[in-house]
Design brief:
44% strand, 2 domains, 0% helix, single chain, mainly beta, binds calcium ion
């Protein structure tokens, strides 16, 4: 580990964490300025030194800049998205079209796929140890697969609808379309706790796809262009991310559905979002709303 001077990269983007694309050719030393290029955008002071997606200090109202646009299967009705060791893992929905996929980030190519039988509607997805855990919408059934070959390991039941899924390193965290987040024991899949997500005194419901990011839960709000940042201890909303306009109108078709799908790679501080049947995944950087 190389020490970083005050004017070096911020937390979350230490030299070891910088992505291969951005990786400096020389190791940084405390005396050296970072060798990567500054943002091509017009960064605010808060983001000036950040090569990554998420700046250290987030205001309550954020918006986005697109860092990179990647292809995405426009037939993928995205219900769960995670990134692991340089690949996306994706759960898609709809009866008769639901699947679990491993996807090459740069090309959108599906490298591995396992289809659900037609009575299951795929939903949230997370990676726990060496397994993939996939929820289903109204079938009260979770599927656990081997991460390497998608071979089935086991199934489990839960009482509510399955929407989004992530984990905080201790518990699985599940949304069900209401304002409730449920915490499940990752060994027994039993619900151990719930929280209600509120902004001031208003309950925020329609919580959909989830991603645990730096101690917060990020959630798509169904049928909106908003992602909400949630304190998983209290359910309090910490902030909003407005992604209005991220998918250009000329990229939309009759099949284009809503924004859904958040994936974060803590190693590289990269943040990705997509939507149901969207032709693209977007790598974005969060910036304060002007
Ligand atoms: Ca996710």
């Amino acid at each position: 580990m190389v020490l970083i001077s005050q004017d070096g990269p911020p937390i979350g983007s230490t030299p070891d964490d910088i992505t291969p694309e951005n990786k400096p050719t020389n190791k940084l030393t405390p005396q050296m300025e970072p060798t990567y290029s500054p943002s091509p955008y017009d960064p605010t002071p808060e983001t000036t030194t950040s090569p990554g997606s998420i700046p250290d200090e987030l205001t309550s109202q954020m918006t986005f800049e697109i860092i990179q646009t990647y292809p995405h299967d426009p037939q993928a009705f995205t219900q769960g998205l995670v990134i692991y060791e340089g690949y996306f893992y994706e759960s898609t929905g709809l009866y008769g079209q639901s699947s679990l996929r491993k996807v090459e980030i740069n090309t959108g190519r599906v490298l591995q796929q396992s289809d659900l039988s037609s009575e299951y509607f795929g939903e949230g997805l997370t990676i726990w140890e060496d397994s993939l855990i996939q929820l289903t919408w109204r079938e009260n059934t979770g599927f656990v697969y081997n991460l390497d070959d998608f071979s089935p390991i086991e199934q489990f039941s839960y009482p509510n609808e399955g929407w989004g899924l992530t984990h905080d390193g201790t518990h699985l965290i599940q949304s069900d379309g209401t304002a409730t987040l449920s915490f499940l024991d990752p060994k027994t899949y039993q619900m151990t706790e719930t929280i209600t997500v509120t902004d001031q005194d208003s309950e925020i419901d329609q919580l959909n796809e989830l991603e645990y990011i730096r101690g917060e839960v990020y959630a798509n709000i169904w049928q909106t262009d908003d992602i909400v940042r949630i304190n998983p201890q209290t359910g309090a909303v910490l902030g909003w991310i407005d992604l209005t306009g991220i998918l250009p109108e000329d990229s939309m078709t009759i099949n284009t559905d809503v924004l859904n799908g958040i994936a974060y790679d803590p190693e590289s501080n990269r943040l990705f979002v997509t939507g149901k049947n969207w032709p693209n995944v977007f790598e974005i950087r969060l910036v304060p709303q002007p």
